[in-house]
Amino acid sequence: MKTEKVVDHIVNWLHSYATNAKIDGFVIGVSGGIDSAVTSALCAMTGLDLLCLEMPIHQAPTQVSRALNHINWLQEHHKRVEMIQVELTPVFDQLIAALPAVANEESRFMSLANTRARLRMTTLYYFAALNKYLVAGTGNKVEDFGVGFYTKYGDGGVDLSPIADLMKSEVYEIARYLGINQEIIEAAPTDGLWGDDRTDEDQIGASYDELEWAMQMQVEGKKPADFSGRQKVAYEIYLKLNKANQHKMNPIPICEIPSDLR
After folding, report:
1. What b-and-e string marks burial along 168-180, b requiring 16 or more CB atoms within 10 Å of the CB?
2. Longest dimension (CA), the chain
3. How would residue 198 be classed by pLDDT, with cut points 50, 70 and 90?
4. Cβ-based neighbours of 203, under 8 Å, separated by 6 or more
5. Rounded CA separation 44/191 (Å)
6. 210 burial class (0-12, 13-18, 19+ CB within 10 angstroms)?
7. What is the DSSP string of 187-256?
8. What does the DSSP 8-state code read for residue 143?
9. What is the tens place of the pLDDT at every residue in 114-135?
10. Are 123 and 117 in contact (CB under 8 A)?
11. What is the SS3 assignment for 136?
12. What is the mean pLDDT of the chain?
C-alpha cells in the first residue's frame, strides 16, 4: 500500500465531502482503539473542526486512559481539536432499571451490549446537530463488509466512513505512519461493550489476519472443503458471520407496492 498517498487521499476526501456539504467539521467517538485513533487523526488532518467524545459506560480504566492520551496527542499536533467526556454509565444503568426482566439472560446480555453502542451513537448525533458536524465512522473493511462486526444503528450509525475500504492490517500500517501512540497499536482490539477484558478475537473466534485471508478466499470463490485444519475453521467462522450479518451490510428492505395495486 502506498501509505502516504492513501492518507492524503482520505484526508482530501474528508475535506471535500465536508466543505461541499457546507459542514464545519467532524465528531467522533474515541475509544482507545486503533480504528478510532486513526480515523480521528485523519479527520484532524483536514484542518476542520474535530470534536472527540470519550463516552465511558462501565469502561475499563485502560481503555479510558488510552482514549484520553490519544486525544491529548491530537491536540498537541492539531489546532482545532476539542474534547468532551460524557459519562454515560448512569444513563445506561437507569435504562437497565427501567427495562422489564426477561427469562433469556444471554439474549438480554447481548442486547444490552448493543444498547451501549446505540447510546453512544445518540450522543454523537446530539453534538453533531449542535455544531453542524458530521459523525465519522470508525469501521474498517473486514468489520463492515466481511463479518459485520458492529452494532446496527450503534457504531454502524454514521454519516461517512473514512477507513471502511481499509483492511485492519492497513489501518495498523497507517497508524504507524501517523505516529499513533504505541499503547494503542499494541492493545488487543476490543469493542469495549462488555465491561470486561474480552477481545474481538475472543468474540469472533478468529484473528483479523485470519478474517482478512478468509475475505480474500471468498472473493476467489473458495469453499471450506478446499482447506483443512485451522484454515478451514477460520474460513467457516468467516462465512457463518458473513451470512448471518448480511442484514447489516445490505440496504434496508423496502416492500414495493405493485403498480396494479395503486
Report:
1. bebbbbbbeebeb
2. 63
3. confident
4. 149, 191
5. 23
6. buried
7. SPP----SSS---HHHHHSS-HHHHHHHHHHHHTT--GGG--HHHHHHHHHHHHHHHHTHHHHSPPP--P
8. I
9. 999 999 999 999 999 999 999 9
10. no
11. strand
12. 95
CA triplet 151, 38, 197: central angle to 5 degrees?
55
The upper half-sphere exposure of residue 202, i.e. CA atoms within 13 Å in the direction of its Cβ, equals 11
Cell of 165: 475500504
Model pLDDT for residues 63-98, shown as the tens digit of each residue: 999 999 999 999 999 999 999 999 999 999 999 999
67 φ/ψ sector (left φ>0, alpha ψ -120 to 50, else beta): alpha
Please write the tens of the pLDDT for every residue from 50-66: 999 999 999 889 899 99
What is the DSSP pairing of strand 25-29 with strand 49-54?
A: parallel
- Domains for the chain: give ranges and CATH numbers: 3-204 (3.40.50.620), 205-251 (no CATH)
- Residue 147: which of 220, 204, 232, 229 has the closest Cα? 204
Instruction: Tell me the three cell numbers of residue 5.
Output: 498517498
Q: Give the number of residues written for the chain.
A: 262
* Residue 13 confidence (pLDDT): 98
CB 141 within 8 A of CB 164: yes
Query: What gap in Å lies between CA 196 and CA 177, rounded to an integer?
Result: 30
Give the separation between CA 42 and CA 12, rounded to whole angstroms: 10
pLDDT greater than 80 at residue 196 = no
**pTM score of the predicted model:** 0.92
CB atoms within 10 A of CB 92: 19
